Amino acid sequence: xxxxxxxxxxxxxxxxxxxNHISGKRPTPGFKTSFKQRLNSCAKxxxxxxxxxxxxxxxxxxxxxxxxxxxxxxxxxxxxxLWDLTDRVGGDEIDLVxxxxxxxxxxxxxxxxxxxxxxxxxELIFYNGYNLEPALIKLITASGINAEKIALGELVEPLxxxxxxxxxxxxxxxxxxxNAIVMVEAIREYLTELSPEDAxxxxxxxxxxxAELKQLDQWITVQIATIPESQRYLVTTHDAFQYYAVAYxxxxxxTLIGISTEEQPSAQTVKNLSDTIKELxxxxxxxxxxxxxxxxxxxxxxAGVNLAEQKLYSDSIGSLDSEANSYVMMLVVNTRTIVNGLxxxxxxxxxxxx
Length: 354
Ligand SMILES: [Zn+2]
Prior knowledge:
disordered N terminus
């Protein structure tokens, strides 16, 4: 059974983690490619001509490579949140590759050769869907990719948003821990289908994770409720917190840009947002870890309010040497940042063992 405390690697450098994984500890997203897979892929890659992308990954020293048992099923997860949840359920029984690195922005991410290698070798691919990671979705759903492909985010009933006169589903479903439970149940189901002999282990890992997510959901509700109602508004850079807002009763007062980070805000948008902040009396607004904070700083200055020192983790977990290095800790750190910024009282998250 895989057991991890909520923040198992807060002080372990990434290189140490890679070494650890060889002896059965946790992998690092994006880094994990088996030796056999790498040999195959370098031969395949030589035949793929992608202008400007280069083939540097084949030349990495052997000490950077992770060697695994060759008979484990190859599983790919696109976002860092899905990578973490899949890692918790699959543990050491699967060969898991995370495509996005912590801190990368899924909306604008362009696949690199090592992603193609991983996706070609996969038997099962978990992706978010609802157009969170458009370039990766295009690659995954292209003809010739034989893996089973599951859009885990699309198992969640979406909140819709209007964009250029059309309604579209909001992809940021992981904002609610209840939605994460839906995705974990599906991860367990598809991993079990892929590797039935590990069914009991996957069930045990999933049950433990779901118990933790239920406690997390309850804990966030309690923490957010400590914020005085007159100040209980979220203002962030991009519109990634609607599921969090609905689940935990903290309305999004405004954002600088919409659902996708490709947009550029106009001067009028900056002015309107700072007017809204002043009108509502919101004391603190928030930058995000995956987006340049320059413009939201301008908004804070114009509205005369605080910009929280700690950025919110919107579309990625934190780096593996940060406190927010897992899905659960991403929500914990975000909630703490929001509660502290808006005048609530924060208690530690201490999930009980099941
Ligand atoms: Zn986003």
